[in-house]
Amino acid sequence: MSDPTQRDPSVNVTIRGLRKSFGDEPVLKGIDLDIHRGEIFVIMGPSGSGKSVLLKHIIGLVTPDAGEILIEGESIQSPGVMDKYRMAMVFQSGALLNSLTVGENVGLYLTEHRLKPPAEIARIVAEKLELVGLKGREDMFPSELSGGMKKRAAIARSLVIEPQLILYDEPTSELDPLMSVTIGEEILNLSRRIHVTSIVVSHDRDLAFGIGDRIALIHEGRIILVGTPDELRASAEPIVQKFLTADHKLKPKQP
């Protein structure tokens, strides 16, 4: 395995005054956040609150209408900054290519860019699959994997670039509660093993409180509160308490 002492350090992420509208609909309404080096930072909120849009801004997939995002104090909109830092994103769907094996999916970036010889790519792929508990699954196809295994394969793919920052978009969506716990444990273990900064977008309260060093609650495009899990639980802010105590289960049908 790679020697962690040879890695570049994880990174700080700073967000100031971030605004974004789509047409006449404002989605982000002045976001300010400080994400510390090496922490697991969870952005939590209900559906439609702007979580995924914020994540796409951080990795440069969307350009803000106003405000800026800084990596180690450098604006990602400045030339060359996005190429300077190694960032990876684990998409909600996993985004594996069904026509490729698991090993080919995980090593795709290295193969397409011809960054390593085939034998070295195979070694790296095997290493990353072992890190996420998929040792020996290189020759399987995505259709042969469970939902949780697909998520872990997508995480393994993000690791091949030796990232300094990993962004996770709803990593437990469409998973049963037991597998959601497993994915949360993978994120937590990876953070400890490879010393990476992790930003996790989720509406899963159990995941957020189980892995987050700090949590930001976003509501209608604004950050309501940032704090540790204990600080959120203790908050008297009505919106925070409403989100944390909401019961999403359907009421039993009346006879």
Could you explain how this protein is built, in words?
The protein starts with 12 loop residues before the first strand and ends in a 10-residue tail after the last helix. Strands 6-7-8-3-9-10 form a six-stranded mixed sheet, sandwiched between helices. A four-stranded antiparallel sheet has the order 2-1-4-5, with helices on one face. Helix 5 (118-131) packs across helix 6 (147-159) and helix 7 (177-194) packs parallel to helix 8. It has helices spanning 51-58, 81-84, 102-106, 108-112, 118-131, 147-159, 177-194, 205-211, 229-234, 238-245; strands at residues 13-22, 25-35, 40-44, 66-71, 74-75, 87-90, 165-169, 197-202, 214-219, 222-227. The protein is an alpha/beta fold and 255 residues long. Helices cover 35% and strands 24% of the residues.
Question: Could you write a compact summary of the structure shown?
Answer:
This protein is of the alpha/beta class.
Which descriptors would you attach to this protein?
globular, six-stranded mixed sheet, 255 residues, disordered N terminus, 10 strands, 35% helix, alpha/beta
Which band does the percent of strand residues land in? 15-25%
Q: Low-confidence parts lasting 5 or more residues at pLDDT below 50?
A: 1-6, 249-253
Q: Treating each run of at least 4 consecutive H or I residues as one helix, how many helices? A: 10
Biggest beta sheet attributes: 6 strands, mixed
Q: Which class of secondary structure composition applies to the elements?
A: alpha/beta
- Elements, N to C (H/E): EEEHEEHEHHHHEHEHEEHH
How does the overall form come out from the CA principal axes? Answer: globular
- The tally of beta strands, per DSSP, is 10
Cα end-to-end separation:
60 Å
Indicate the mean pLDDT: 87
